[in-house]
Amino acid sequence: MNYKAQGAPKMGRNAPRHAEHNAPGSDKDPFGERAGGRPSKAELLKRMKAAQDERAKKDGGEG
């Protein structure tokens, strides 16, 4: 029986389609300086909590 013709899963294609030319850590942006640097984890959490509070206010309560 020919399992290839049956549509067996193709493994090993878990790669991004392309790489950004100015990604943090690349030659064009080695230290992530293009947008003021990468935000710290504390800054991200603060922003996420603020968005959650704003969404809770807009929805009229906790979800």
Automatic annotation (TrEMBL):
Residues 1-63 are annotated as: Disordered. Residues 17-63 have a biased composition (Basic and acidic residues). This is Cobalt chelatase. The lineage of its organism: Bacteria, Pseudomonadati, Pseudomonadota, Alphaproteobacteria, Rhodobacterales.
